[in-house]
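Justification of resources, computational component.

The compute hours requested in this renewal are based largely on the per-chain cost of generating structure records like the one below. Each record pairs the submitted sequence with a full structure-token output. That output is archived, and it is also reused by downstream analysis tasks.
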Amino acid sequence: MAHLGCGQRQREEIPVSRFALVDGNNFYASCERLFRPDLEGRPIIVLSNNDGCVVARSAEAKALDIPGFVPYFQIRPLCRRHHVAVFSSNYALYGDISRRMMGLLARFGLQQEVYSIDECFLALDEGWPGRQHGQIIRQTLLQGVGIPSCVGIAPSKTLAKLANHLAKRMPRWEGVLDWQDLTEREQERLLERCGAGQVWGVGRRLAERLDKQGIRNALQLRDASPDTLRRHFSVVLSRTVAELNGVSCLELEDVAAGKQQILSSRSFGQLVSDLPTLSASVAHHAARVAEKLRAQGSVAALIGVTIRTSPFREAGQYRGHGCLPLPQASDDTLTLNHFAQTLLRGIYRPGFPYQKAGVYLADLREKAVIQQDLFCQAKPERQQLMATLDKLNREHGHGTLKLGAELLTDDWRMRREHCSPGYTTAFGQLRETRD
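The structure output for this chain reads:
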């Protein structure tokens, strides 16, 4: 590890001095604008699955006071009046741009921890030049990928996160804030202006509990007694206090830990009643969880399927759920879909208008160390088939190869009336944009 916890010495071969948090600005909206220069200066919003709610806004959309997570139908007239560009979520595009972004950023630090689709931590050494180099990161990312960003630099991850937050909201820092460039009084003023709930790791409920203790802003939290917080709250919060005081307590992870459960589910674009349509949906979700499972090098020993009607209907409510242990832990798409379809037939009830279906995997194990069943070993040709399936979908766009069962009908697919082309993930759609 490049960094060890409180009270532990850092390894001499990687003398980590500070951390930088690099975050893409309005990431989804920036990805949509990347291939549409005509949208420069125009407000953009991105919608959730089935074009339901606003999940991302450009700076211009925020200036129009368009709120986040509001149902789209409520603001449709406002969007038309101000010529707002509206997009359905294009996760394949955002994921691909994210991979390019993180690959470029990796060169700037001793280590990198990808924290989310649009942000990562970088471990910095003692000779790192600070704010000037932060500007170089921003320029390189803008030129190499086309994504605007902000950089927060500090001696701890919590302070780096806070510095990034302030760099976004205070134009005077020009997108880069190095916490150690501030005087002690400047640091205190900024901490005082940040609510306790704005500190990384302090959620809404915890902020409410802190408020009852008279701790309402980040400065009061920084100056609180760690021992008192440990007794009344948790050791995690006491570490947060140490981090706010510039003492690094949170490790930088080289590789994100594998998930303990994998789920793929989605609401339908329209209500579904028949079994073939549900079967196509479940086949799609089985393929998605299998792909994610292989990507993290795991196998699953348990599979589950869920279907449900709309919770907002007054009558005709039904929620079906079934799960079963697999004879042998597997990451094979065909095997997982076989058991998923068996479960679906067991929980399906005719006559109900279903709104959502999903498939989940649990009891995940590391594939490299799993003990094989003598009478149920995976066939080498099937493993090669799965590797080829993943390779083609990775290189030519998600969904290039899919299960035939997914194509029984398209009635289950979510509504995406404003979806942009897969500029970097689908060659066919790239050709369409050139015509």
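The longest strand covers residues 354-366. The first helix runs from residue 27 to 34.
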